[in-house]
């Protein structure tokens, strides 16, 4: 509205207009859907000429729906050090509260070789960190006869020394099939020991109403197995407070899960019914109750601090970003814990060794060690499947010792 008031041309892109292009606020505006991003130049050209264009079609290949845009499209990265690769679009679920599914549809995975090529090219362009994303990375490959561990083993061969790979969100059901392999991959020195597994609720009856297709014990199996096999791993999760039908007892089960795992990174969402979803038609929990539960969970989250015991540790961290207040550079250690380091230009994009001297709720602060080696990403020697050494074996041993001393990371609460 503001842009239009200023007589600017507007193009609306992404899932929301794709799912509901007839909403009032979109009237007369140009829209580009999730599978048409490669035609953005046409849409902008037309919008500039004052025309309203809507490209919302679903691409098909031999009748099969294709997923997102081509992987080799030209790209300007928001952060030139980080490449974000979507490994698949859509998912295999039908969660009753979800709007994304309406826009993204069923699972459509990119072929392994295309993803490997994208990663290889990114490293050649100076990237030092790759994030793999999707609605559900655990489901990757089920539609094309492959799976997530196969992709990850191919990708780790491409990660140069001094660079890292971060895996995105996975729902519990599909990752359960791959726990053994996933634990080996997450122990790889060039892969962050970090997994985002959204539990949403610890009540089986709420999970059933959400149609999440797992029970709380499935989540526990994933978390317990990985915590056992990947020492120090960070398990981040999401929780929805006040889903329709959630009783006080259901909510208590969720609080108990948080007390049990003390998630360092917890995304708390107060339930909001997305129009057109099955959950919007269910009997809603009163707004006051939803608010109260969200507050209670948030207080619980802020009642613990899993970082203090890390003070004094020596850690290898990869510097990729700048802090919001521009005072520090932001780096991450093996567990994808946020470590603030001094803003020295020679650190950007490098792996450095620091001593942790301060810990807050959401961060650690690290002091660079004098004379420690600085790793600059370089094209790596291919690794064999199952091989754990990417830096030196000595470095790996040191990291493993730190893992045993460490627990979990904290990230800003959403
Ligand atoms: S919330 Fe459920 S339906 Fe929606 S994208 Fe995630 S897994 Fe798919």
TrEMBL record:
Assigned GO CC terms: endoplasmic reticulum membrane
Keyword tRNA processing recorded: yes
Limits of the Radical SAM core domain: 77-307
Organism annotation: Oncorhynchus mykiss
Keyword flag Metal-binding: yes
Similarity comment: Belongs to the methylthiotransferase family. CDKAL1 subfamily.
Source lineage: Eukaryota, Metazoa, Chordata, Craniata, Vertebrata
Full protein name: tRNA-t(6)A37 methylthiotransferase
SUPFAM superfamilies, per database record: Radical SAM enzymes
Name of the gene: cdkal1
